[in-house]
Every structure is written in structure tokens, then in C-alpha cells.
Amino acid sequence: MAKVCVLGAGSWGTALAVHLARKEGNEVFLCSMTDKDFEKISKDRENTSALPGVKIPENVKINHDIEESIKASDMIVLAVASLYVRETSAKISSFVKEGQIIVEVAKGIEEDSLKMLYEVIEDEIPQANVAILSGPTHAEEVGREIPTTCVVGAKDKETAEYIREVFMTDSLRVYINPDMLGIALGGALKNVIALAAGIADGLGYGDNSKAALITRGMSEIMRLGVKMGAEESTFAGLSGMGDLIVTCESRHSRNRRAGFLIGEGMTPQEAMTEVDMVVEGVYAARSAKRLAKEHGEELPIVNEVVKVLFENKDPGEAVKDLMLRDTVLEVRSQDY
Predict the structure, then answer these.
(1) DSSP 8-state secondary structure symbol assigned to residue 334
(2) How far is CA 10 from CA 144, 165, 328, in A?
(3) Which helix (H) or strand (E) holds 150?
(4) For 201, which of 154, 161, 288, 319 is 20 to 30 Å away at the CA?
(5) Nearest to residue 79, comparing CAs of 45, 28, 22?
């Protein structure tokens, strides 16, 4: 079927390597960016720190030689955290063949440039054919073959269909969508809203509060996305509403958990230390606020999250200020 190099041996990279190796015909290389991870994962055949309980099949070649793995592969799955996408892309650029497919699976926005992560890869590896895979896809469930759906975006239909064929199994259903911008924005900004949902949970608020944050948060994401040129329908799909729901509700969500800890009284830094994984929403929040300003959109939930994270605003006061804002139409209409 395909030779695939999964670059990044965190929970998501490990889960994808395990998933791809289960499909007959795929040959999978799993590459870690650190010696420590490589040695431990190789010995245990399990990522005990990031994805405990999921055994890595013997047909996954855990290989520390990144150059060798990339050159031997048809496709690269770039599964490093968003903070390291540019640095990693620069490191591997000289190994990537003309037209080689890179599937970007992290969720975030580069804070300095405000570029989507697939655009960052294109900057550093212009010869690559860059695509994106996203959706409500917690590694803990994909690794255990719990039924999951996701979406792939690519510059051309042929590439998207090829990626779908490589990834699709009876436990992972793959859809395709050409709106790469919309897919990327939905994946990045839902983490900010999940922080807000977690804060509300930590404060002891109820289901009504969570429903309001999810729906109004989706409205913020959609308004900004459409202003930036994304398709409105994308945000009603898997990489939009689907990913937002699971990230705001799931016990596996690091962003919701960090928000919960903040709501309970931890500082943002204490919460991130406790979670002990990259909390992508913390880094996406300021980027979202800057993008909104550039495109003339107001994002009240995002703004309050930024104030809690970076301006020492009390989480309870942030929620109160959201509730006391001037009321407006729920949807934009010419009738009123």
C-alpha cells in the first residue's frame, strides 16, 4: 500500500503509527526526535509515558535515523507539536523528495507569522506536497481502534484520495475536503474554546454553561474563518464542530484539563506543568486575537481567555463579563 514515516513519537504520532501498521500492505517507520524516547519506546514496544497500554506492532520500525526513514518512504506524517513544526521542517527539508507527500497532523497557528502549520511546512519544504489531517481524533481512542472519523485536506483531489486510502480502515473513516484553511483554523481555535470550557467546569458551572461556550465559540471560529477566506460549511463538519465538541467534553483533552485546573485556582503555568504536555490552546489564543484584529472581527470568548492566560484576570470575572456583554442577534440577518 504505502511506506510511511511518522515523525514525532508523542501520543498522536505513536497512535497513527500503530494504526497505519495494522493496515495490510503499509510499511511504517516511527521516528522520535529525542534519544531518550527512542531508547525507551524501542525497548518497551510501547509509549508508556504518552500512550500507555497500546502496544506497538513489530511491523512498526522504530528508527532513529530520520534521513533514512524519510528517503525510504512515500509519505511523511509530521506529528510534532505545533511549536516545533518550523524547526522540524527545516531539519528534514534536505531529505524530502520533490513531490513527496507530507501530512500535517498538529493543530495550531505559528504565533510570530500567524501562518497555518501547513503553510509553515510549505515555507521550509517548498518541494513537498503538503496536506492536512484533522478532526475529533484523540490518540487514546485511535490507538485502541475505537471508531473514529477524520478529514483530509490537500491541494488536489488525487492526493487527498491517496491519503484517504492509506489511512482508511474499519475503525477510522476518512473524509476529504479541499478547504485546508478551514480545516486548520477549526483545529487550532477549538483548543482556545476548550480552555474556556474547562475553566467553566473548574469553576463548577453546569451543562448550560458548556453548551453556550461550545455554540458561541463555534460562532467565533466560523466568523473569523469566513473573513479569512475559509468555507463556512467546513466549520459544521468534523474539523470544526466535531473537533470542538470532543475537545470541550473529553477526559482525554489536555486543553480542557488545563482550563479545568485554572478554573479550580491554578495559574496557567501551574496548569500546563500539571498537564505535562503541550497545551496548544495557550499558544493559539494570542494568535487568534491578532488574526481577529487584522480581519475586523470581535471574538469575546477568545479575548477573555487571553486575559485569563496572560493578564492575570480572575476566571470568574471573565465569565461574568461574558454574560454581561451587550446582547446582539444570535445570527446575522437582514430581517432585523
Answers:
(1) S
(2) 15, 24, 43
(3) strand 148-153
(4) 288
(5) 28
Q: What is the pLDDT of residue 37?
A: 72
326 Ramachandran zone, left/alpha/beta (phi>0; psi -120 to 50): beta
Q: What's phi and psi for 5, nearest 5 deg?
A: -100, 115
The rounded mean pLDDT for the chain is 93
Rounded Cα distance between 13 and 277, Å, is 14
The helix/strand count (H/E) of the chain reads as 15, 8
The b/e string for 113-132 (b: 16+ C-beta within 10 A; e otherwise) is eebbbbbbbbebbeebbbbb
> Is the Cβ–Cβ distance between 174 and 154 less than 8 Å?
no
Q: Is 190 a catalytic residue?
A: yes
Rounded to a whole number, what is the largest CA-CA distance in the chain? Answer: 65
Report pLDDT for 187. Answer: 97
The active-site residue, picked from 23, 190, 289, 307, is: 190
The three three-digit cell numbers of residue 186, written as one number: 477549526
**CA–CA dist 14, 116 (Å, integer):** 23
The answer to whether 275 touches 171, Cβ cutoff 8 Å, is no
pLDDT digits (tens, 9 = 90+) for 254-275: 999 999 999 999 999 999 999 9
pLDDT digits (tens, 9 = 90+) for 87-98: 999 999 999 999
Q: Is the pLDDT of residue 123 over 70?
A: yes
CB atoms within 10 A of CB 316: 14
